[in-house]
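Per reviewer request, we include the raw input and output of the structure prediction for the construct analysed in the revised manuscript.
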Amino acid sequence: MKITFDKSPANKIKSDAFVILCYEDKDLLTKEKKNIETTLNTEILGITLEDFSGRDTEVEIIYSNDKRIILSGLGKKDELTLEKVRKACARAVKKANDYKIEKVAVEIVQDESLKRTIDVIAKVQTEACIMALYAFYKYITTAKEKRITIEEITFFSEFNNLKKFAKQIEEGIKVGSIIGKAVHCARDLGNEPSNVLYPEELANRIKKLGKQRGYAVRAFAMNELQKMGMGGIIAIGKGSKNGPYLIEMKYNGGKKGDAPVVVVGKGVTFDSGGISIKPSAGMEAMKMDMCGAAAVVGVFEAVTQLKLKVNLVGLIPSVENMPGGNAIKPGDIIKSYSGKTIEVGNTDAEGRVILADAITYGSRMKPNCIIDLATLTGATVVALGHFVTTAMTNNSDLKNEIIDSGQATYERVWELPTWMEYDKLIDCDNADVSNMGNPARTAGTIVGGMFLKRFVENCPWVHLDIAGTAMSNSTGDYIPKYATGVGVRLITHFLRKRYS
């Protein structure tokens, strides 16, 4: 899809449809109608607007002379937010796609009440348009028509002093394009079936991306993991014929010697639950138990193209959790990479076990901080639904930065406590730590985070449980069904704010 910015007046732009975002206000809507008629050199019959009021759920296509105009509602002017701008753009381009339109022109919003620079607004609109048009039809062979027909999105602006803002708009569109496409990359990985995307194939794809984007990739297979003492990754991965991997990604955009930021992503390419097997209903979604890993790859897609001045390390412990003859069993005791021993209370609490090795490995790089992303617990969905990512941390400053980035991107984050009373729940009689809480099913999300906390060695750390946000059961304005790519925009925003 081609994304451009045209500095020409709107009536000079060649497009199949024009997108205008409108407020829920009769006077402002009348004013906007006149603006459209002036800028597009057309005339709109009043009756065509009778069914459109500008509510933040509305989208309408109208015809005027030789123009197709898509109106999308922003809601009340005094309640405008960046998220409403995102959703209005998303609804509009999806409407255009429904009508099999190929070229769309989208107006950049002008509103000082957003309290954002114009480059941020342009970035947000670009991201939203790209994310709204995501589709995963790779394996559908019977479709005769293109599912996504839009080939070009042109942004335009009617600013009086456009020359002053043109460079900012162009920069915002460029950044938004990179980030939007990085989200698509993460979604594609999350949606791949596990017979296609298993640990070795994930490693190979990341190596290919590394060559394209200019970052280094190492993939440690079983024999190397054994030499390294990665007992957690080995234990979970040995039940499958597809062996486990630890995938290490390195981008050196900062100064030599600067402490890196380490991002760790859970890469369980399929989670059957192992010997503690899951119920069959819904198990097909467990191909998406590697959405944390997908987010890390998406972050690298964005950061390397944005050329951020940061040293970034990505760590992806990748396994299939299967109930094979060599699979780990409840009651087994593992020696982790850290040297700590883990008693397995439930083989379906596997993600924390592989992350423990990766987090310890990252800790020993003496990083600036560690951020892990994982579809770790179903308990987070029970507690908070699909609207928020839960966070646990050992550093309030890092947590505040992540929460702020969550608000800015609408990938919102909510902190859970790390009190010592919860830490005691993972004590056990036979090993240093249990991978299950005692009693079982008590404070499940917190117990998972407390387990990971034990493997962090002297560095700021935040754990993000994305089980509720990484997978969607329905389609939203710019959130697709299935893998959402959550975490890419959140972590990229955090890194841009720190290192741009």
